[in-house]
Amino acid sequence: IDIARSTLCHWVLRCGELIEPLIDFIKQQIIKGHYICVDETPVQVLKNNHKNASRKNYMWVYLTGSPIYRLILYDYQPSRSGIAVN
Questions:
Q1: Eight-state DSSP code of residue 82
Q2: 36, 37, 42, 69, 79 from 59: Cα distances, Å
Q3: Which of 79, 74, 75, 39 has its CA nearest to residue 55?
Q4: Which helix (H) or strand (E) holds 23?
Q5: ∠ Cα 55 38 14 (to 5°)
Q6: What DSSP element (H or E) covers 15?
Q7: Which residues in the chain belong to E strands, given as ranges?
Q8: What SS3 class is residue 36?
Q9: Is residue 60 packed enough to be buried (19+ CB in 10 Å), middle (13-18) or exposed (0-12)?
Q10: Which residues pair with 45 in a beta bridge?
Q11: Quick check: pTM over 0.70?
Q12: Is the pLDDT of residue 83 over 70?
């Protein structure tokens, strides 16, 4: 099956919009946790305007809870600034 790239991009963006309330709920629950484990991993991302140029962005992983009730959230951010971690 051949699906246009623009269609796939639209589907992914729309799914992101639909699950945003769930992500916000998970963030609230993590903040309420007794402890939070955080890991920041740099990732290389291609710039749109320079095909071979890349920039460093970050994938933040937050974890809290017991093994039975564990919450994990992956959060992609373009920087390490405090504004990125909400």
A1: G
A2: 16, 14, 6, 23, 9
A3: 79
A4: helix 5-32
A5: 60
A6: helix 5-32
A7: 37-46, 54-65, 70-77
A8: coil
A9: middle
A10: 55
A11: yes
A12: no
Tokens (6 digits) for 52: 């071979």
Condensed to tens digits (0 to 9), the pLDDT of residues 59-78 reads 999 999 888 889 999 998 88
Written as six digits, the tokens of 10 are 């639209």
> Is the distance from CB of 80 to CB of 58 less than 8 angstroms?
yes
Q: What is the pLDDT of residue 21?
A: 96
Tokens for 6, please give them.
Answer: 């623009």
What does the block give as tokens for 42? Answer: 């740099």
For residue 26 the two structure tokens come to: 């998970």
Question: Which two tokens mark 69?
Answer: 């009730």
